[in-house]
Amino acid sequence: MDSFRQKTILVVEDEALIRFAIADALEDAGYAVLEAGTVLEAVGKLGQHEHIDLVLTDIDMPGGLNGIDLAKMVAECAPKISIIVSSARSHRDLDGLPDVAHKLAKPCTAALLLSTVGSVLKAKERAAGEAQRQSA
């Protein structure tokens, strides 16, 4: 991962006001933000944009696919992209999430959101750096 490039986050949330609030907090912290209101819209954005570093998705989404489905797709098809799944559900209700997905309880403060995003991105960078050193 290029640590000098501005990190890009895809925010997938069907509630427009929540999506805008999350996007504003992330942009204010220096991230580039893409937004999607459905899983299908998110899949389209993933296909259009080469440099997405993290997908932050809600679980409950309109249409036939939910945030768990999206997390599974990203984990399988784009393993370099970090995943955070946000939900007001109990963690016990999040069965089926891929092991690489991180959980964020809703509602949360902007500070917790930014802390979680930062730590997930740093962990992915460390893992990529270690893999690179091992292959050298």
TrEMBL record:
Occurrences of domain Response regulatory (ranges): 8-121
Modified residues (4-aspartylphosphate): D58
Residues annotated as transmembrane: none
Keyword line: Phosphoprotein
InterPro entries cross-referenced by the UniProt entry: Bact_response_regulator, CheY-like_superfamily, Sig_transdc_resp-reg_receiver
PROSITE patterns referenced in this protein's UniProt entry, alphabetically: RESPONSE_REGULATORY
GO aspect biological process, one term: phosphorelay signal transduction system
UniProt keyword Phosphoprotein, yes or no: yes
Protein name per Swiss-Prot or TrEMBL: CheY-like chemotaxis protein
Species for this entry: Aliirhizobium cellulosilyticum
